[in-house]
Write a structure and sequence with these properties.
- It is globular and about 80 Å long.
- Helix content is 23%, strand content 15%.
- It starts with 12 loop residues before the first strand and ends in a 14-residue tail after the last helix.
- The protein is of the alpha/beta class.
- Strands 27-29-28-33-26-32 form a 6-stranded mixed beta sheet. A 5-stranded parallel beta sheet has the order 3-2-1-8-9, with helices on both faces.
- The protein has a domain at 690-828: Barwin-like endoglucanases (Beta Barrel), CATH 2.40.40.
- β30 (762-764) and β31 (767-769) form a beta hairpin.
- Bound molecules: ligand MGD (2 copies) and molybdenum atom.
- One ligand MGD binds next to α15, β13 and β26.
Length: 836
């Protein structure tokens, strides 16, 4: 989230696209409802009419995977009707920057495409640079070479009529939504899996960034692009070094092409180098010195040819490269796509540890119906884990709020908190490696890992916060002091921080995540729910990211305008440049590089200071900021999605229609799928005519191990099902409650049907497209059992983020005699919940 949960109360309009907020983010609804009571409008764009649609003012039914077509038309309408905030766009985005004149797109492919490698050479996606190596700027938005005009040209193909043909949303309704969203400010966007689980997931979200920058909705109270995170503490996990591709607060983990820290810095810039250096110092302590690159050389390096995330792990297991897998807080035998392949892959691993609350489908994969345990070589160890109320620690929510939690009860039996288990295993592994001279063991032997057994969680949070390893007089830091913020981190190894974005959460020894002060007084003064003394928010306790963009060139709060300069909403004071005090002040922490540098200095105008340009990017141009102090190094390198500097519509891998915009580029051109031929078949509409969309439901949680073991939840939602439109039920002779056989190119199963008007057939490109829905929450373990929907789904992923395309694949549906009759699935047949 760029904003935070309570801030939703201040929005005038909500675009909820790709999330079932009412069922999956119940607490968000509290703030959305408050806004709605004050007159805010809610737009819900979703293939299925659900509880979120039910509270919306406008519901638009979209075909899964067609969001870029719809949002492309919205962006086009905002530009052509002059609904964009011209002042904001000129000041705070790269709209006026001149793009290179050799950039373009033809037949769905941007310039620089290499057909063999499925990869782009991004050179032509850059700016025209001046002698100072900085982008040249146009004097008006009318300049045909400026980014704004490139954007306009790009989206000119996305007329409401074309968008209707692709997405199924009537052109008139697209116009109505665009106007409603553009004219009510501030407006916010909420999204989750409906937008990310696609092979165009990253570009889906880029549409949101572009739209919100055009409308001047970023950095403002009640605005923002808000990702509603899923698993408890998934935000915290991403902030740490838990993702395969990141270390220390969103810094790329090292690649084979970057053997030294200097190589890494060339690709990532000197700003990030400083943060990585502080992270390495946290990991290696006294062992990390300037002479040895602070231990950078000991880190494992990634091969550019491999995917180290979930689907890559499955491929590596299948290929026999994975010897040991430690599964912790995850149940991939239910939640990964293409499950028959996952099961085959797991059976090739030597040794698997599952650290769990339950014996899940993953722990027991060798007992799955239809498997022959004798043919499976994998040895599985199940470690009992403590649940959240049985351990203390810090949890980060979607808005970046870190809240300390206390243990309520002791873990049962031999169950232990995950942190204790990891600590224990690390110490024992280190003992085993003692005396080793093998270079690959150095990271373990040199690690600064000596936490106290008591108060372990708090000791880890202190390390994440960071400390001084030497006196730093300039910052008033004595050796051993816990740093009070990012500004105290040094680039020479005299400080450390395990995740720089968290620096300050344990300022000078005070655990701020334990704060529970609610400043009702401030609420009364400002009318704004912005509780800066309740727990602690990263970075630096800032609530609204990019809030510098809420001010004008003089650093004063800015109203929301349209292209002609008409004011649509008055300025809401949040931060501003105080001329007498000569510093940035406000009710939120100002998002500026230096609070004493005014708007007349270069630092005083970097509303998007984490990007190389310092401004918001309508087009994601390639660029390196040349202002580094270190010779030959960029200060910052622009992030550019690998599949294009602007979003372009591509069909899902399995789709019943051909790409209307450019039949020659049907799917995302950067996608490589199948990765493992034979194991990843692609179905066609001839055999599998219907689009399957999958998601969770209010009554169950993900793989369901926790919820399917709770009898009263099983009573509410007793078994898996397929929802289909009334038209399809009539065509196939299927009624609610009838058994149906659902099949895809990857697997099949028998479940009961729910025939409903919540699902409807759409007209896409002149033909009928029928969408069916299934929840993915069942498996063969627990009190309520049933087939796992992910047997059917496709394991193609977004080329940039790797997210699985579980929102769109093709299936066939036919009536089944009964669950046992047609398939050997009797052991999978649902047992109703009830109290057992
Ligand atoms: N009760 C409950 N709460 C949960 C969870 C749970 O399992 N149960 N899971 C948690 C987790 S891990 C997560 S990540 C979040 C997920 O939160 P959400 O993303 O809200 O969860 P989904 O149910 O996947 O909802 C996605 C919505 O997008 C729609 N959709 C599907 N495809 C498309 C598409 O192509 N375009 C558009 N515009 N919409 C589409 C679906 O119909 C659905 O309404 O919820 C969290 N909260
Ligand atoms: N078809 C389809 N598939 C999907 C999705 C979809 O929309 N459609 N959504 C995807 C999404 S967004 C997600 S997040 C994944 C979820 O995928 P998973 O993470 O595999 O699903 P969960 O059921 O949440 O698994 C969490 C496990 O952790 C255990 N657990 C809970 N607390 C603790 C603890 O403190 N310690 C330990 N060690 N274990 C604990 C629980 O018992 C549970 O088995 O599913 C994905 N799969
Ligand atoms: Mo999730």
């Amino acid at each position: 989230m760029t904003n935070h949960w309570a801030d939703l109360e201040h929005s005038k309009v909500f675009l909820i696209e790709g999330s079932n907020t009412a069922e999956n983010h119940v607490m968000a609804m509290k703030w959305i409802r408050k806004a709605q009571e004050k007159g805010a409008k809610i737009i819900h764009v979703d293939p299925r009419y659900n509880r979120t649609s039910d509270i919306a003012d406008v519901y638009a039914r979209i075909r899964p995977g067609a969001d870029i077509a719809f949002l492309g038309a919205v962006i086009r309408l905002v530009i052509e009707n002059g609904w964009y905030d011209a002042e904001y766009v000129k000041l705070h985005t790269n709209a006026l920057y001149l793009a290179r004149d050799d950039f373009g797109i033809a037949d769905g492919l941007f310039t620089g495409y290499d057909r063999e490698k499925h990869k782009y050479d991004m050179a032509s996606w850059g700016y025209q640079l001046g002698k100072d190596k900085k982008p040249k700027k146009a004097s008006s938005l009318e300049d045909p070479q400026c980014v704004f005009q490139k954007l306009r040209t790009h989206f000119s193909r996305y007329t409401p009529q074309v968008a209707e043909e692709i997405s199924g949303i009537p052109a008139k309704q697209i116009e109505e939504i665009a106007e409603l969203f553009a004219k009510n400010r501030p407006g916010t966007i909420l999204y989750a899996l409906g937008m990310t689980q696609h092979t165009v997931g990253v570009q889906n979200i880029r549409c949101y960034c572009i739209l919100q920058l055009l409308l001047g909705n970023i950095g403002k109270i009640g605005g923002g692009v808000n990702a509603l995170r899923g698993e408890p503490n998934v935000q915290g996990a991403c902030d740490m070094s838990v993702l395969a591709n990141y270390m220390f607060g969103y810094n790329d983990s090292p690649a084979l092409s970057q053997p030294t820290l200097a190589d890494w810095t060339k690709d990532n810039g000197t700003f990030n180098r400083k943060m990585v250096l502080n992270g390495l110092k946290a990991w290696f302590g006294e062992n990390g010195t300037a002479e040895n690159d602070f231990g950078y050389g000991w880190l494992p390096k990634r091969s550019g040819k491999k995917d180290y995330a979930t689907m890559g792990i499955v491929d590596a297991s299948y290929a026999g490269e994975m010897k040991l897998l430690w599964v912790l807080g995850q149940n991939p035998m239910v939640t990964n796509p293409n499950l028959n392949y996952v099961r085959e892959a797991l059976s090739k691993i030597d040794f698997m540890v599952v650290q769990e609350l339950w014996e899940t489908e993953t722990a027991a994969f060798w007992q799955a119906p239809g498997t022959d345990a004798k043919k499976i070589q994998t040895e599985v160890i199940l470690l009992p884990a403590a649940y959240f109320m049985e351990k203390e620690g810090c949890l980060s929510n979607s808005g970046g709020l870190l809240q300390w939690r206390y243990a309520g009860v002791k873990p049962p039996g031999q169950a232990r908190p995950d942190l204790d288990v990891i600590d224990e295993v690390f110490r024992r592994v280190r003992d085993l490696y003692k005396g080793s001279t093998d270079a690959k063991d150095a990271a373990i032997l040199k690690a600064n890992w000596n936490y106290p057994r008591e108060g372990l969680a708090e000791a880890v949070l202190q390390e994440i916060n960071g400390r001084a390893w030497k006196d730093v007089p300039a910052k008033n830091l004595k050796q051993g002091d816990l740093v009070a913020g990012i500004g105290e981190l040094q680039a020479d190894g005299s400080t450390s921080s395990g995740a720089w974005i968290y620096a300050g959460c344990f300022a000078r020894g005070k655990n701020l995540t334990k704060r529970r002060n609610f400043r009702a007084e401030r609420l009364k003064q400002t009318g704004l729910t912005l509780n800066s003394t309740y727990a602690w928010t990263w970075p630096g306790n800032m609530k609204i990211l990019y809030n510098r963009a809420s001010c004008d060139a003089d650093g004063q709060p800015m109203p929301a305008r349209d292209a002609k300069g008409n004011i649509l909403a008055a300025a809401v004071p949040m931060i501003q440049w105080d001329k007498t005090q000569k510093k940035w002040v406000g009710i939120d922490v100002p998002d500026v590089p230096d609070p004493t540098k005014g708007p007349d200095t270069p630092e005083g105008h970097q509303p998007f200071r984490m990007g190389a340009e310092g401004v918001g990017k309508l087009m994601a141009n390639t660029y390196e900021d040349p202002d580094a102090k270190e010779p030959g190094m960029p200060r910052d390198v622009a992030y550019v999605p690998k599949d294009g500097p602007l979003p372009e519509f591509y069909e899902p891998v399995e789709s019943p229609v051909s790409n209307l915009l450019h039949p020659g580029a049907q799917n995302n051109p950067c996608l490589k799928y199948p990765r493992v031929p034979g194991k990843q078949p692609i179905g066609t509409a001839k055999d599998f005519p219907y689009v399957l969309m999958t998601s969770s439901m209010a009554e169950h949680w993900c793989a369901g191990s926790t919820t399917r073991n709770i009898p009263w939840l099983n009573e509410l939602a007793p078994e898996p099902m397929i929802e289909m439109p009334v038209e399809l039920g009539a065509k196939l002779g299927i009624k609610t409650g009838d058994w149906t056989r659902v099949s895809s190119a990857r697997g099949e199963m028998v479940v009961k049907a729910v025939v409903t008007r919540r699902m409807q057939t759409l007209r896409i490109a002149g033909q009928e497209v029928t969408i069916v829905w299934m929840p993915y929450n069942w498996g063969f373990k627990g009190l309520s059992r049933g087939p796992s929907t992910n047997v059917l789904t496709i394991d193609a992923g977004d080329p940039g983020a790797g997210t699985q395309e579980t929102k769109a694949c093709l299936v066939n549906v036919v009536p089944a005699k009964d669950a046992a009759g047609e398939l050997a699935v009797s052991s999978l047949a649902p047992r109703s919940g009830g109290r057992r």
